[in-house]
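Single-chain item
Fold in token form
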Amino acid sequence: MKKILLALIIGLLMPTSLWAQENIQFADALVKELCVQHWDTNGDGELSTDEAAAVTDVTGVFTYNGNIRTFNEFRYFTGVTTIGGDAFHMCGLTSIDLPANVKVIGGSAFNETNLTTTDGGVTEGVIVIPEGVTTLEWEAFACNPGFTSARIPASVTSIAGACFRSCANLATFSVDSGNTVYRAHDDVLYEGNTGL
């Protein structure tokens, strides 16, 4: 009896955040299914924000899945610093919200998707690269006809060739004024004095 009473008292005194985790509400049932299958560590059939934050690599989970539409909950995956090569290659994704801690967007990470937004639907038709990203690898956003514009933050220091290849409607680039490597002039992206 004393042990039960002690456990109840400790439970009442503990901060709520230590015993009740916030479960993520996924808009896309297939994305939830895949996330729970791979990263539900406590076996409750849900994915909490803590479980998502513990993930460091999503490579191979979503690749070639044409039935996925939105993954704006990706923003909770704050342990992901590199979006690996082919991570979302040939997904049916139209909208994703990139985690704030991402530094590298790997080769073909978003190649041949249906993306129209990378900031959770806030800026339709624009590839918004989060501040903090330093590297965009080969064909990272290639073959995405839904984009009309791309925003490059000050933190980006490396954009591989063909990063935006075959983005048929991508007509304009803007580069943060603090970027010392890249610049945009007349809506064209330049590295130093050379057009990309």
User: Anything to note?
Assistant: The helical segments are 2-13, 16-19, 29-39, 49-53.
